[in-house]
Design brief:
The chain is α/β, with parallel strands linked by helices and 316 residues long. It has two domains: 223 residues, Rossmann fold, CATH 3.40.50.300; 67 residues, Alpha-Beta Plaits, CATH 3.30.70.270. Helix content is 35%, strand content 28%. It has ten helices and 14 strands. The strands form three sheets. A six-stranded mixed sheet has the order 6-7-8-3-9-10, with helices on both faces. It has a four-stranded antiparallel sheet with strand order 2-1-4-5, covered by helices on one side. α3 crosses α4. The longest helix has 18 residues. 33% of the residues are buried. The protein binds adenosine-5'-triphosphate. Keywords: Antibiotic resistance, ATP-binding, Nucleotide-binding, Transport. It is found in: Cell membrane. It is a peripheral membrane protein. One of its GO terms (cellular component) is plasma membrane.
Length: 316
């Protein structure tokens, strides 16, 4: 069922290239104003999926619904006006950065003056202002990447598709771009679909997640729910003064002898069966004369979930 709050619904999406089924029966939904990370190894079908979601590739089976409207040849043109798609191809190499954005913005129906103003803002955010008159053919790889993102967001699309937007960007530019996207989602209620291999810190951007493996969606849902479902117990990293065997014994005396306590150097890591057990662990260590130096909660990340999910299926 499509909810009026869904910007995108994919249902049974399938793509076959000759003998190879690149995408198999993919179903997921993305609520408006949310950021959805579509993750998976090389060749798992992300780009093929995005191309079907944006109407660039006809599915072998299944449907795509954008803003409550089925995507087909009749609706594609109107719907594409509300979509921004970043790809690293088809920039006009022999034109300047300014002209590339101007042409693109006007193609999307923006008035020339609006494009000029918006292009100025976008280039400023992306750190490309000084290269506005450079020919695209003379830009570095990272600069082209930034320009392709700038072009996709120029017309303030309701639904934005980004494929590896931070690939080739230096760490500062990458962090700036993520901040910009977050701000865009917050202020314009943009819905974002992002494919990326850069998983570190992705939970600060993505609220929803789909992990695709060999063309099949292995898990999908809200990031925090998926993490809680996978790791329901709270984990802690603890450092205490004293003999590691005594520290371990004090911890297991509280959380149970069968519980796993992983000791690495002067740290140990363990899960507690319920929240308040950590207070009892600390009290026990202090009582046993084992001074507690640090107790740090461990929050599982999208990266943890990604590897755990793919490992579930190994070997393929
Ligand atoms: N036009 C095509 N003709 C034939 N096979 C294709 C075509 N496009 C993609 N494929 C195949 O479909 C599968 C999925 O490719 P796709 O590009 O969607 O993967 P991806 O997840 O985006 O990979 P990457 O992370 O490397 O970009 C691959 O096996 C690929 O070879």
């Amino acid at each position: 069922m499509t909810s009026p709050t869904d910007a995108l619904v994919a249902s049974g999406l399938t793509k076959r290239f000759a003998e190879r089924e690149a995408v198999s029966n993919l179903s997921f939904r993305v609520p408006t104003g949310r950021a959805f990370g579509l993750l998976g190894p090389n060749g798992s079908g992300k780009t093929t999926t995005v191309r079907m979601l944006t109407g660039l590739l006809r599915p072998t089976g299944g449907t795509v619904t954008l803003f409550g409207q089925r995507l087909d040849t009749a609706s594609a043109d109107a719907l594409r006006g509300r979509i921004g798609v970043q790809t690293d191809t088809n920039l006009y190499e022999s034109l300047s950065v300014r002209d590339n954005l101007q042409i693109w913005g006007e193609l999307y129906g923006l008035a020339p003056a609006v494009v000029r103003q918006k292009a100025g803002e976008v280039l400023e955010v992306l750190g490309l202002s000084e290269r506005v008159d450079s020919l695209v053919g003379q830009l570095s790889k990272g600069m082209r990447q930034k320009l392709s993102v700038g072009r996709a967001v120029l017309h303030e699309p309701d639904l934005l598709f980004l494929d590896e937007p931070t690939a080739g960007l230096d760490p500062e530019a990458s962090a700036d771009l993520i901040d910009y996207l977050k701000e865009m989602i917050r202020t314009l209620n943009t819905t974002l679909i992002i494919c990326t291999h850069q998983l570190h810190g992705l939970e600060s951007l993505c609220d929803e997640l789909g992990i695709i493996r060999q063309g099949r969606l292995v898990i999908t849902g809200e990031v925090q729910s998926l993490l809680r479902r996978r790791w329901p117990e709270k984990r802690y990293r603890l450092s205490a003064a004293g003999d590691p065997a005594a520290v371990r014994a004090a911890i297991t005396a509280v959380i149970g002898a069968e519980a796993e306590v992983v000791v690495t150097g002067d740290h140990c890591e363990f899960a507690v069966p319920e929240d308040e057990a950590i207070s009892r662990v600390i009290a026990r260590l202090v009582r046993d004369g084992l001074g507690v130096r640090a107790v740090v909660p461990q929050y599982p990340t999208i990266q943890d979930l990604y590897f755990a999910t793919l490992n579930d299926g190994s070997p393929s």
